[in-house]
Amino acid sequence: MHWRRLLREPLVHFLLAGGVLFGLSALFGQSFGVGDNSNRIEVTADRIQQLRETWTRQRGAPPTQRELDSLIEDFIREEVLYREAIASGLDQGDTIVRRRLAQKVEFLAQSVASTVEPSDAELQAFFDDNAERYRIPEKVSFSHVYFSGSNRGAGAEAAARDALARLTSGDVATADAAQLGDRFMLQYEYPPQSRDQVRDLFGPRFAGRLFELPVDAWSGPVPSSYGMHVVRVRQRVPSRLPALGEVRSQLARDLGGERLRSAADAYYEGLRRRFEIVVDADALAGGAAGN
After folding, report:
1. Are 143 and 210 in contact (CB under 8 A)?
2. Diameter of the chain by CA atoms?
3. Which CATH class is domain 139-237?
4. By the 8 A CB rule, do 5 and 116 touch?
5. SS3 of 189, please?
6. What confidence score (pLDDT) does residue 134 get?
């Protein structure tokens, strides 16, 4: 529908975000530029409900009247000190405060985009445009016999070659292969693993060789970060693109994140156009020359 297409437009996100910021400012009596100069602090019904709900989420039970009175007094104390800090200019020149306030405004701008649920058509379009990001990598399942580099030193490779010869000749059955080597702290048999998973377990050299080995044959020696291995690849699962349903949740998260970034960027660009930006060209050129 036409209105759904409009909701996807960054300009619409910007306009909605501006409306949200204006409404929040009016509702809570907050200014996102300079401090509130009013001497009136009003604890509204909405604010009391927010304090009550926050306490309940954190503690698992609603506050007693005494606890609620304390929460309200804490809020008033914080508001008084906040207004005094703003009036005294304590927010000026403080990088942490500046960054936190900037993040708060950006989060408010993003909140509008986060409420728009993507349709199936939007998810499919996003998937089509970014299909390679969701490709399921090639995987292999394998068994191995381990020969310790720390215990055997240079002899680990020779022992691996001897074990390979006995396994390929049939002198030792595959079921008894692990007995030819040393004890290994991890597994001897692995279900399908991606190249990255194997690299994380055995190191890059082992992962590089493993994916080049033939299926249903003992091969080696294959070096790893632990020592030497004789390896039998049991199965190779080729890389493939998943169906939409397999990655729907991830797609929704990624598309939502992209919308948040677009909304924040659109809102910032709208604000930026309200300012005259002046950069000291001489200082900039001098800094570049000194590097």
Report:
1. no
2. 92
3. alpha beta
4. no
5. strand
6. 92
